[in-house]
What does this fold into?
Amino acid sequence: MRTPRGADRNLFAQRRAHHHTKKQRMKPGLRLQILLLLGGLMVLSFVPLFVAVATYTRVTLSQLRIESARSLGRAVAGHVLEARARRTPDELRSLLDAEIGAHGVDAIGVYATDGKPTLRVGDPMLVDALGQPIDVNREALFEMQGSHGRAIAVAVPDARGLVVAVVRADDISSRATPLVRLVGLYTGVGALALLVAAYFALTRLIVRPLDTITRGAQRVADGARKLEVPSSGVRELVELGHSLRTMTDALVAEEEALRHKVDEVEAATKRLAEAQDRLVRSERLASVGRLAAGLAHEIGNPIAALMGMQDLLLEGGLSEAEQQDFLKRMQRETERIHRILRDLLQFARPGAPQDSADDSDGNVETAIYDTVALVSPQSALKDVELAVDVHPELPEVTLSREHLVQVVLNLVLNAADACADKKGERITLSAAPHDSGVRIVVEDDGPGVPETVRGKLFEPFVTTKEVGKGTGLGLAVCRGLIEAAGGSIQLDEAHPGGARFVIDLPAS
It folds into this structure.
């Protein structure tokens, strides 16, 4: 069993909403996005700060070590210069040997006034380096590479020559590493604490109130009539909640008003339907009344004449010629009643077969020329010109030839009656292909159809002829026959002068 189409649409909407909700849940929330943004800002801020602090620390310690080595070298060089003036070379060597290793002194070199070394003690690598002549005229500071690593040499000149003290410059990286690590640890802990604090602050101040508002809105979407919003929190979210509640109350009020209006419209629609039913019944009764009135009028006159002539015949005293005249008149009135009843039955059953109808095909050309042959001897057309214009090779139509003759004959005779009071009038009968069918046009130069009867021209017992000259059923019967065959007949109200009837019949 298939699910109704409406249920399929509801199921599709539910699946789509579930997929949309699942897709939304896969996206990072506001809290996570803010924390990621804050973490990124911290990385951009703290990493350069950490690198700057570490670099500054290393540079500062290196400068302090160089200044310390310079001060120590000057002190050692000054002490050697003083001892050089009071001691012998052997005593000076002993003093220099004693200075080696103290306070990081790795080597000491004593130079004569010509710049050549006279005494060198300490690290063999540094001693070899100190064997080169040195400019004794200025104080100098330069780096050297010894067995223990990097060293700083301080040259201090005096009147007797030059003393060079080489002081070990320890690698400060190992000393700066704990400080740098401490700074990094402090920075990381501070950033983590800030993120944790931001997490709880966002949760309490933003996320929880938003979740409350979202759940309230979902309850309203599920049918709740009131939106519950938090009354505490940040000012913006409180104002947002109040605005949403005001909007929800307004929407609920508008929904109630709309429901009330819908109820009013439904009640008005029901009243209109009832009024329409009453109007239709009234119209039907009016149509039946008009039909009965027309029928009583058309039949009443001949029946009254029949009754009068019957009374005269029953009274007697009439000659044979008078009796024959009365009988012929009674026969004509009886035939008139029969013709009215036959047309009325044909109007009521336009698609039913008639005694005079046959199963002949709907040949329009033949039907038109048969009609012309029937009306040509009529006295009504003696002073009227009848013009015929039939397109060759017309397709056959769904209306039988006998019914075609009946319809066209009725229209031509109506046109002849309209032109009876004037001489030189013209009736045009034409037929041509039109929209996969045939269009038949009958028009005249008469006075035309009065505007007062145009709207009800095809209703039964509506006629512009004098009493006794027409029943008012001819056009009604024609319309019934044509519409039963799937065609249409109408009065061309835009035609100037005279009447113009247009018949459209589909091809068979």
In short: The beta strands are 105-111, 117-122, 140-146, 149-158, 161-168, 385-390, 426-433, 437-444, 488-491, 500-506.
